[in-house]
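FW: tagging you since you asked about this chain on Friday. Here's the raw sequence from the shared folder, copied in full. Didn't touch anything.
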Amino acid sequence: MKNILIISTSLRKGSNSETLAMSFAEGAKTNRNNVETVSLRDKTINFCRGCLSCQKTQKCVINDDANEISNKMLNADIIVFATPIYYYEMSGQMKALLDRANPLYTTDYKFRDVYLLSSAAETEDTAMDRAITGLEGWIACFEKAKLKGVLLAKGVTNIGDIENNEILKKAYEMGTNIS
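HL: got it, structure written out here
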């Protein structure tokens, strides 16, 4: 049984990336994994100030929701990020959270596997390449972690466009493969 933290970074309730994350979660639960989903929709996450105090204290000096989320990341076996693709890149709120997770760098973090689920209006297979590269840059700072899997729902713009899309089954199956 794994502790899985899913972080939904879309600010739209019922978004396509959030729907993708829910399908992954349902699959992961079939193997009795402990799954927690955190949405950034109602969270306050300020920008990193670059002061590097967190490297000494393992805590950010900014008192907002990023500290609680970073603590959940610290204790998760698996982290799953779900993001809409904006201008061929991860959402700004996801990038802000990754920057604010800097206190984890000097800790004995538990996560080993990281997944990226995304949705995009674009239909090209390469639509999420920059988001993958950005997340891989973050993961590279955590020697024990690796990018385990990625999924892209292409050609989905409006809320609900992902319904009945084959990608939801793939997300579910990806979740079921965690044991």
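FW: The radius of gyration is 15 Å.
HL: agreed, and The longest strand covers residues 146-153.
FW: great, closing this out.
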